[in-house]
Amino acid sequence: MTEMYDITIIGGGPAGLFAGFYAGMRTAKTQIIESLPQAGGQVAALYPEKMIYDVGGYAGIKAANLAKELEKQTRLVGTEIRLNETVVDIQAQADFYHVKTNRNEYDTRAILLATGNGAFNPRKLAVEGLDHLEDKKIYYHMPDVEHFENQDVLVAGGGDSAIDIALMLEPIAKSVSLVHRRQQFRGMERNVQRLQESTVKVMTPYLINDVREAVEGIDVDLKEIGTEALKATHFDKLIVNYGFTSSNKIIKGWEIDLAQEHRMFAVDSLMHTNMKNIYAIGDGVEYPGKLRLIATAFGEGPIAVNQIMNDLYPGKRGPVHSTSMFEK
Ligand SMILES: Cc1cc2nc3c(=O)[nH]c(=O)nc-3n(C[C@H](O)[C@H](O)[C@H](O)COP(=O)(O)OP(=O)(O)OC[C@H]3O[C@@H](n4cnc5c(N)ncnc54)[C@H](O)[C@@H]3O)c2cc1C
């Protein structure tokens, strides 16, 4: 027997997180399923260092901090947040839905799609046959830093997070190298300056051309951009930080038929899709006047959740203000 949820929210971006908070206020048994190992959607994955000025209540907040605050707020009400898990199929049952992820299966009375542009996944190395080394010698997500204690580590990438990872490992690892295909780093000037002052060995402009498993660690061939010359290197571990890709293709294989307009879910003013008890909010929806903004996503969540509760439990008491919950 799988546990029955009232609401399963697919996607842990701003839309899904705030809807998850609101669903908790309505005492709905709710879970959020997010494919990345971190919550926050685009805000955390694509522009964590950017300042956001157009969210109510903040005269300016760093994107990474908004994502953290949203997650904290959602966890206040007991909504479960399942990270690192991707929904791969939804099957309609008599009066509920069966949700399959790459790791588990759940039953749920209602589904709230907050999938944005689709499931985020880390952009991987363009080298075949490395799957068996993932999370052993090659990492696309940062695990606990102990994994790199006294190790020779290669970090690949040119953005702020690649630099942050290299600097974070500097005092822990035996050696840290950073490889980037351009001469210049995309990171913020302050970060790049810290990198220049560190012991991190910077290798530019190089691209990873091949990776082979060695008895101890891995052999990595680097190709110099421009000359095409190959440089043979050896490391214990490799962390790849090439950003993310997002894909909505996965939805096409789902057993249920969801009407889409311009590859977005078509919804009515109650955020209802064409399927009974399936709603959609956030960047992944289309309706006249739709704005792809965080503020809009925040507004759509409570509309959808209240409608779901009306549909599932007609007659149940309606919306409450947060103060009546938290000041008890
Ligand atoms: C560079 C940039 C700057 C921006 N600046 C601003 C700004 O200043 N102000 C503003 O208001 N807006 C800004 N935006 C837009 C804003 O980020 C989006 O409107 C907002 O993130 C939409 O939230 P969402 O939750 O709908 O979607 P997303 O943030 O895209 O989150 C969707 C989440 O769903 C997950 N997901 C999808 N499919 C699955 C699946 N099958 N299983 C599990 N998980 C899944 C994805 O991994 C993702 O984390 C900016 C966008 C970009 C790209």
UniProtKB/TrEMBL annotation:
Under InterPro entries, the record lists:
FAD/NAD-bd_sf (IPR036188), FAD/NAD-binding_dom (IPR023753), Fd--NADP_Rdtase_type_2 (IPR022890), Ferredoxin-NADP_redctase_2 (IPR050097)
Q: Which UniProt keywords apply?
A: FAD, Flavoprotein, NADP, Oxidoreductase
Catalytic activity of the protein = 2 reduced [2Fe-2S]-[ferredoxin] + NADP(+) + H(+) = 2 oxidized [2Fe-2S]-[ferredoxin] + NADPH
Keyword Transport part of the UniProt annotation: no
Residue runs in coiled coils: none
Cite the EC number: 1.18.1.2
Q: Which GO terms describe its molecular function?
A: ferredoxin-NADP+ reductase activity; flavin adenine dinucleotide binding; NADP binding
Name the cofactor(s) required for activity, per the record: FAD
> What is the protein named?
Ferredoxin--NADP reductase
* Source organism of this protein record: Pediococcus pentosaceus CGMCC 7049
